[in-house]
Design a protein that fits this description.
Length: about 170
């Protein structure tokens, strides 16, 4: 049984770069998709990435920490493009108890932050498959220090859109 679990975990980790590529492809090509289909595809790939991040946390020790933010101007440019493309499906309320305070989240912001962190790991892997462990460490550390909350918020908002038949 333990061997089966190890094999399953190993398979999930090996599939992560492909899921990451799929996510980045969707972000980079948002204009090539019908909005509903694009949101559906994003809502399917994010949970796969999330599940593996939990596995990586338990599979690796945290001896080192790799994390750095990318160019703020590039992030803002992508955020604006996503926001324009998503339109009214972009914003969401943050917590029911905060409704009167009018605090809102943005799917565009979440996805832009996810994109740059995930893309950074892919760029490392593209320099050589031997760099997979470095990319996994970067993703793991970034997940817990920064983009994990964006992933959870994006998944929550996409779930809300699906439940309300908006995707």
């Amino acid at each position: 049984m333990r061997n089966e679990n190890r094999n399953k975990i190993s398979k999930q980790i090996q599939e992560l770069p492909e899921d990451a590529r799929r996510f980045c492809f969707l972000i980079e090509n948002i204009d090539e998709f019908e909005a509903q289909n694009w949101l559906t595809q994003i809502s399917l790939v994010l949970p796969r990435i999330h599940a593996v991040m939990e596995v990586i946390d338990h599979a690796n020790n945290r001896a080192e920490c790799f994390f750095a933010l990318s160019d703020i101007d590039e992030r803002f440019e992508l955020f604006c493009h996503l926001k324009k493309s998503l339109g009214e499906k972009d914003g969401y309320e943050v917590g029911e108890e905060l409704i009167h305070n009018e605090l809102y989240g943005s799917l565009s912001e979440d996805l832009a932050d996810l994109y740059f962190e995930i893309k950074r790991g892919l760029d490392i892997i593209n320099c050589g498959q031997e760099n997979l462990s470095v990319a996994l460490n970067l993703w793991r550390d970034g997940f817990f220090l920064h983009w994990g909350q964006h992933l959870i918020d994006a998944e929550r908002h996409l779930y809300h859109l699906r439940v309300h038949h908006q995707i």
